[in-house]
Amino acid sequence: MDDMNGEWLPLIEIGPCDSYQMGLLIGQRFAHLIRSRVSKDKILQEEMLPFAMSNDGHSLIEALSTTNRNKYPKYWDELFGTAEGSGVPFLQ
């Protein structure tokens, strides 16, 4: 169920593919929901993104990105594919 408005999310079936391709398909299918959620998230827009643009934010994002990309490469690829598919920047 979608926490934003209590509606059920549509089901998507994905056949065998790599992590990036799976994320891309998910991003394409749910692009409108992802973009809507990102645009309406006040904490993201007013606090997190401005911090991410700061020097401290850049340093933190770089460290977290490197660690997570190395430790969880398939999840990282899926997230990257989801961002690409939805048209939402992966890392700003």
Class based on secondary structure composition and strand pairing = mainly alpha
Q: What distance separates the N and C termini?
A: 29 Å
H/E element sequence: HHHHH
**Which descriptor suits the 3D outline?**
flat
Number of strands: 0
Strand content: under 5%
Number of domains: 1
Radius of gyration: 15 Å
Low-confidence stretches: none
What's the mean pLDDT score?
92
User: What is the helical fraction, as a range of percent?
Assistant: 55-70%
The biggest sheet amounts to:
none
Count up the helices: 5
Describe the structure.
InterPro entries: Peptidase_C45. It contains five helices and no strands. It has helices at 19-29, 31-40, 42-53, 55-71, 73-86. The chain is flat and about 40 Å long. The longest helix has 17 residues, at 55-71. Helix 1 runs parallel beside helix 5 (73-86).
What are the defining features of this structure?
92 residues; mainly alpha; 0% strand
Give a quick summary of the entry.
InterPro entries: Peptidase_C45 (IPR047801). The chain has 92 residues and is mainly α. The chain has helices at 19-29, 31-40, 42-53, 55-71, 73-86.
Sequence-ordered SSE layout with sheet pairings:
Layout: H1 19-29, H2 31-40, H3 42-53, H4 55-71, H5 73-86
Helix pairs in contact: 1-5, 3-4, 4-5
